[in-house]
Structures are given as structure tokens and as C-alpha cells.
Amino acid sequence: MNRLSLRLRLTLAGAGAVTLAIALASLGLAALFAAHVERRAVAELSVQLDQVLAGIERDAAGALDLATAPADPRFQHPYGGLYWQLDAAGERLRSRSLWDYDLPLPPDLLHDGAAHVHRLPGPEGGELLAVERSVTLPARLGAVTLRAAVAMDRAELAEARTAFLRDLAPYSAVLALALMAAGWAQIAVGLRPLHAIRDRVTAVRTGRAARLGEEFPAEVRPLAAEVDALLAAREAELARARTRAGDLAHGLKTPLQALMGEAGRLRAGGRTEAADAIEEIAGAMRAHVERELARSRVAMQGRAARADVGQVVAGLIRVIGRTRAGAALDWRQEVPEGLIAAADPDDLAEALGALIENAAHFADARVTVAARRAGARVEIAIRDDGPGIAPDRIDALMARGARADTSGSGLGLAIARDIAEALDGSLTLHPADPGLEARLSVPRAEDPAL
Question: Where in this chain does the record put each Histidine kinase domain (predicted)?
Fold first, then answer.
């Protein structure tokens, strides 16, 4: 359940609540309808009872008789669903519909003219709704007290309630669907600030914004404030880390220069092996320092930086093209205009400069620098027409600390790879025919207008 989306959980909970509410409301309406129908049935039975009492007479033998029977034909059919019964001084009269069944009226003390409503067992195992009244007949009819009752099958009331529920069901379903749709719309509106937060976080991640801001509802604003505070703390920590890295690098430069000077004096004194060992150790230390400085600088820039790839490549070609190795080469630049990378121009120039300089070092006659947009990334390919590298050596060359030869190109390749990784990018080498192709992939900068 915890993995379900918040929208789905709220929708399911709302749908369940609406279904339960509609079901309870339908049952309540059915109960109200049944009570109303029963009241109407009691009223009709009272009218029928008045008609029965109005039709009482004495026959020629002096016995009570119902001279005028109610008009409803159900009184005439056995077990027809409507019944009357009269009890007076040991005499009992019944409707034809009762056939041989007597209404089991409960012992009840009734005042003259008072009426009571009973639920009685009926013929054939059914249940009856009965209205009973006690009346004193006039003197011409003997002035006796008469107990009269009219009853009907409650099955008719149950059928009416069932029919009501059946008719109510489609309207209840439509109402439930309408309420669920309204609830879904309410959830969509209520969760809209979360989409706004997602968009703002994306803007911060891609460099189009520095903070989430405060343009959110009061319930969401504390969350945005906490995220902004976290971003500020991270930036402060990165700044401190960069400062410490810079201090460390500057602190090591003087000892490294001293070591290099000592190596020069040893070499001048003929101690070449010791000088080579010191220069190798100092060079490795300088490589680590340069790489860590590059990483810390890129981490501070993040996605907020923007670099025009065409301008960076053009500047590098102008500079490297004036060197002794680059002046003799044919330089080709295939970079579309307006291609923007999410990187600091200096960082991108440092990474590409190492790759382009390496290509110029090994090229025979031509170096091609091409770039293209690949979805959310920028891919830059630097290709030379030199001797290349055997495919089985590429993985070893990409290993940390490896060198292509003894000319120092390994340091530039390592820095370029570290810059690419710090930018959430990658650097790969691929054999070409002829030569070698280095592919640098970095994130593409978002358009601020979007």
C-alpha cells in the first residue's frame, strides 16, 4: 500500500467513502419509504374498517351480519391479501378471504372508538398488518361492544420497498459516479502544489533556478522552506570543501616546486636515477592535486553553469592550432550553433583542451571535432587520423592513473574523465579507421524560457 501513489490512495479512499455513504443513504431512504408506505397502508385500512363498521346490520334471526361488504374484491377471494373480522358477545364474522382462518388478535383493552395497529401472523405463514378498533353498536343493533379488525398482507409493503430500491439503484449509481468524479477533481486540484514542487526541483537540478521559493500554499510552504535550507547548507558545505581543497593544493605547490628543484640539482650532479624518481613522485602528486581541484571546481558550478560548445571548441582550436603540432594539421569543426552544455566554460575547455591536445599530438594530418544534441545530453567527438590504439588497450588506458605514453597525456585524459563524471557525464574512447575517437558526453543546458 505504501508504494501506491498518493493520488491513487486518495482516490480509492474517496471512492470507498462515497460508495459507503450512498449505500447507507439508500438504505435510509428505503427505511423512510417503508415507514411512509406503512402509514399510508394504515390509513387505507382505517378507511376499510370504517366501511366494514358502516355495513353491520341484524338479520331476520337477530344475528349480526355485514349487509354491505367493502367493495375491494380481495375481501372475496380466499387468502386474497385483505381481510376483516368482527367479534361481539360470542359472535364472530369473517371475510370470505380468511376462509377458515381466524385473526389471532392479542388481548387488548380498547376504549370505545380507540384503534390499535398490530402485526399478526397470517394465513399460509405470512405476516399481516392489522388495524383494530373497539366500538359500541347503537341500540337498534343491540348496544353491544364490537371488536373489529381489518388486515392486509405485509408482503405487498415489502414488494413496494423492493421496487423502490430497484428504481433508486440507477440514480444512486449516477450520484456515486458524480461524487467520485468530483472527488477526483478535488484531489487533482489539491495535489497540484506537489507537481509545482516537482517542477521547481527539476528547475533547481537543471540549473534554471537556485531555490524552490515561497510561491506555494501554506501547507506546502514549510516543505519548500526546508528543501531550500538544505540546498543552502549543501552549497555552504561545497564552498567550504572547495576552499579546503584549494588551500591544500596551494599548500602543496611550494613543496612540489622544491622537490622539482631538488631533482634538477640532482640531475645536474649526475644523479639521474634519483632525479627521475623524485620527478615521478612529484608528478604523481601534482596530477592528484590538479584532478581534485578540477573536481571541486566542477562540483561548485553544477547545472547552473552554461557553456556554448561551438565557442569553446573554436577557441581551443585557435590556441592549439598555433602550436608546433597543431599548425601542421587540418582542423575541422562540425558543431551546430546554439548548442549549450550544462557546464562551466572553463571546465568544458579544460576537458576538451586535454582531448584536443592529445588528438593533435597523435594526428598525422587531420583532427575533427564534431558535436550534436542527443536528447538531454551533448555529445562531443574528437577524432584524429593517427596510429590509434589497439582495442584491447582502451580499457587499460581508461583505468585511473593510466597513461597512453610517457609524454604526459595520461594526466589530461584523467582530468577530462573526472570533469565529465563530476558533470554527470562520461568519457569513452573508440577505435577509428584511422586513428582514435574520444567521445565526451555532458548534460545539455535547459532553455531558461521553458
Answer: 247-446
